[in-house]
Write a structure and sequence with these properties.
Elements lengths: L6 H12 L5 E2 L6 H11 L3 E5 L3 H4 L7 E6 L2 E6 L14 E7 L7 E6 H15 L6 E4 L6 H14 L2 E4 L5 H11 L3 E4 L1 H10 L11 E4 L6 H11 L2 E8 L2 E6 L18 E5 L2 E5 L11 H6 L1 E2 L2 E11 L2 E7 L3 E4 L2 E4 H8 L8 E6 L2 E6 L7 H12 L11 E4 L1
Parallel strand pairs: 1-5, 2-3, 7-8, 7-9, 9-10, 10-11, 21-22
Antiparallel strand pairs: 3-4, 5-6, 11-12, 13-14, 14-16, 15-16, 16-17, 18-19, 20-21
Helix pairs in contact: 4-5
Length: 397
């Protein structure tokens, strides 16, 4: 399924779960390389998508049943009409949600129904939302952080959700004023963006709670965000494989940490790596036995993140796996390299993350026309991978 933030996303997701289908969540920013891998791995029998996204899916559509949505109306657009059942999925699987661990291709986490329920329950225990309070949704609902915190939690606890399809700070501030928003859930990078436009004329006095996650938030940054917004800031840590793992409890936030472990999650640090265990953890990566085996050690899930404990609070330090966060979104550096190597004139490439940017060094057989080649790489990559994955700088190996 492929939708932007909308009531339709919620309706379709819940409807598919209700009838026993397994929603495969696609992100609007995905391009050809990502979609090819996902469709090859998940082998969907049907596609349900907003009509505006169908053209981007056409290169990977084969004989699937295609249902489009426009203006709240569903329409059958084509396909064989045949249905199939994925018998290799565990019975408790609720959804396939794709993530990255540095292999160069996305992995489908098999998320059980119990993770959604207990994840939402843990999120509510941390943030303590009240019936009638208004929550502004700014992050994509296809991300598990938003799906749990902005879709399931409000539905289970009678909060009112206001859906935004813009990240424009001025419009966000107007929504907060117009709808008397009580709380926002976002990544640190968005709060930093909003701060750049915040001034004495901004009317956001209704805002009481900021929930943050998805990226590193240093203690000094925590204090700046909290003081500038005059709101309580709760920072936490989670993964596609289980969310949330840990988080600040309302009224007990501690700058520089991502809070104590949520229930029911066990945490440990093994050779610097954060590892987690829970009866509601994802059951593995779909049709990726090798990657699933490598992700576990003695029954503990290896997050690939480095951290430590500060009392009963977890401190996130950095990522160890070959991924990075760009504007709060996960980027697999090996996938970027694979996209660059689709250019037949580039025999090798090195992709790194440095100073908050993805950079790439390419090997070339001849330096003739080198500047033109580098200039041509961005338009070459744009149809292949999401914009936030495209390197901002290029060099020569």
């Amino acid at each position: 399924m492929l939708f932007n933030n909308s009531i339709e996303f919620v309706q379709v997701f819940l409807a598919l779960c209700t009838i026993g289908a397994i929603p495969v969540l696609l992100k609007p920013e995905y391009r050809k390389l990502e979609l090819e891998e996902i469709f090859s791995n998940s082998r969907p029998s049907a596609i349900v998508a907003a009509k505006r996204f169908i053209n981007s899916l056409r290169p990977v559509i084969r004989n699937q049943t295609v249902i489009t949505s426009e203006g709240g109306t569903l329409a059958l657009e084509g396909g064989s009409g045949q249905t199939c059942c994925a018998t290799d999925l565990p019975a408790e699987t609720a959804s396939l949600i794709y993530t990255y661990r540095g292999y160069g291709y996305p992995l489908a986490a098999m998320v059980p129904h119990s993770q959604f329920y207990f994840g939402a329950k843990a999120f509510q225990e941390l943030t303590q939302g009240l019936p009638g309070q208004r929550l502004l949704v700014v992050l994509p609902m296809s991300h598990i952080f938003t799906l749990v915190g902005c879709v399931l939690v409000p539905l289970l606890n009678k909060l009112t959700t206001v859906i935004s399809n813009t990240l424009n700070p001025i419009r966000i501030f107007k929504y907060i004023e117009q709808f008397e928003i009580d709380r926002i859930i976002a990544v640190p990078e968005l709060y930093f963006l909003f701060l750049r436009f915040l001034d004495s004329s901004t009317q956001i006095g209704s805002l009481k709670v900021l929930v943050s996650g998805g990226s590193l938030l240093r203690a000094s940054e925590f204090e700046v965000v909290r003081s500038k917004f005059h709101a309580e800031l709760l920072h936490g840590y989670g993964l596609t494989e289980f969310a949330p793992v840990s988080g600040h409890i309302l009224g007990k936030a501690r700058a520089g940490t991502v809070g104590p472990a949520c229930r029911p999650v066990d945490l440990r640090i093994d050779e610097g790596e954060i590892q987690i265990r829970s009866p509601h953890l994802f059951s593995g990566y779909y049709r990726r036995e090798k990657e699933t085996k490598e992700a576990f050690k003695d029954g503990w899930f290896r997050t690939g993140d480095i951290g430590k404990f500060d009392g009963d609070h977890l401190v996130f330090l950095r990522e160890q796996k070959k991924t990075c966060k760009v504007n709060g979104s996960l980027v697999d550096l090996e996938e970027v390299r694979r996209a660059i190597l689709r250019d037949t004139e580039i025999p090798d490439a090195l992709v790194q993350y440095d100073n908050d940017a993805v950079i790439a060094h390419i090997a070339v057989s001849s330096r003739l026309g080198l500047k033109e080649k580098i200039r041509s790489l961005v338009p070459f990559l744009q149809p292949l991978i999401a914009d936030n994955k495209i390197p901002r700088k290029f060099g020569i190996l």
